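Dear colleagues,

As part of the handover before I leave the project, I'm documenting each prediction I ran so the next person doesn't have to rerun anything. This entry is a single chain, and its sequence is reproduced below.
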Amino acid sequence: MSTGSRNTWEAWARSVPPLACVSSREPCPDPMATATRLARAGLAGQYVVYEADGGVWHFAAGSDVSVTADTGGITARAAGRTWTSRPDGRPLAAFADALSALRDEDDEGSRGEENAGGRHFYGWAAFELAHLLHADPASAGDRPLLHAMVPSVEVTLGADSTMVRAVDEAWARKVADLLAEPAAGRSSASARDVPVREGTEGIIAAGSAAYGRAVARTVGDIRAGLLEKAVVSRKVPLPAERHPDFPATYLAGRRANTPARSYLLDLGGYRAAGFSPETVLEVGDDGRVSTQPLAGTRALGADPAENERRRAELLSDPKEIHEHAVSVRLAWDEMAAVCSPGSVVVEEYMAVRPRGSVQHLASRVTGRLRPDTGPWDAFASLFPAITATGVSKRAALQTLARHEDGSRGLYGGAVFRGSTGGALDAALVLRTLIGTGDEAWLRAGAGVTAQSSPEREIEETCEKLRSVAPYLRFCAD
């Protein structure tokens, strides 16, 4: 970090108020619904609900403190002031430098002991960040690539307790009052809980013919030796006259899904309600890092016998096994680039995991970060997830730029929760309702290899869209 940048971020960090008010309450009987209710309350201009491992929900809200990165520079805000820096084509490194300044403040003791492990931040990374990291920087565009919020209030809803951390008593009282309110019945409908009127199958079929042609062109690229695999996706716009209710969609969809992570957010210009099937990476305070590639898909329905038949088919299908194996191989290589020699292992290989309307082949690769690397180095190596791009990443990104219609934005990127103590948990943005401005859409993709057929890949995207589309809820007219 240059001296100028260091001084900039140190000044910003000194302007970030600590979460000085800390209290503990009895656990909530339904933490998912409670977190959603907090999100709907409109406490601040930005919020995030993030479901972490082990059934713990985090709610965070704030408007004043943020860091945003694009190809032109970094902008940080706090206490009504703005700080900027130009990172010379390395926005992720500069983004990490800004957040690390908060840790320096913690280390000086000015934050107290209110949060062992450091201060938390929440944010997202757009898929186009990949072009800066692995391919053509000119393809990254001019929209924000990274955004993080340092919350004014954070609520952790666990099995044993509900923990509230806030910058002052006023914030703490707002949250306490909301937590004290009686929860509404799970099955009750409100003016904002209007199910989708259009048939689910009509929604998910949009754009399938054009997608089939894109798959065929990608198969041609693969057979020509340009790459091994590309995850080609299609966008499914929702009717412009309808306005999705993101909290209601999240609650309905999460009750029906079995994700690795879930999230609900209105943050940095994006709204999202998603049920992520896998993590891009998980980094602990101790430097242990893990990634969870999922590749290979079959439908998952209500008939146990049919699900078992599809599971057996998945485990024996040469195309699916090849697609999965090349993803695990690349995950290993990307982990080895930032981990201590000999520490990278495949802890799980080709298990079958249920994820809402589908079942996937799943593996887990773990390692331990080298002393000279940190969580954002691991993020730079592993992002975007192999299972949202392809092999090799550079060639896959070039192929997607040719064959997909428009930029992906949040889709295929990440939603993350991290701490100044070194932890970082990043969920892959798939199976997600996304909105920005007056637009809202779904998106789904499939791994294309030399053995792919357009018909099967279209079918796979429909299978994945059924994890979200049936649970869409719209605001009442």
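DSSP finds 13 helices and 25 strands in the chain. The longest strand covers residues 345-355.

All the best with the project,
I.
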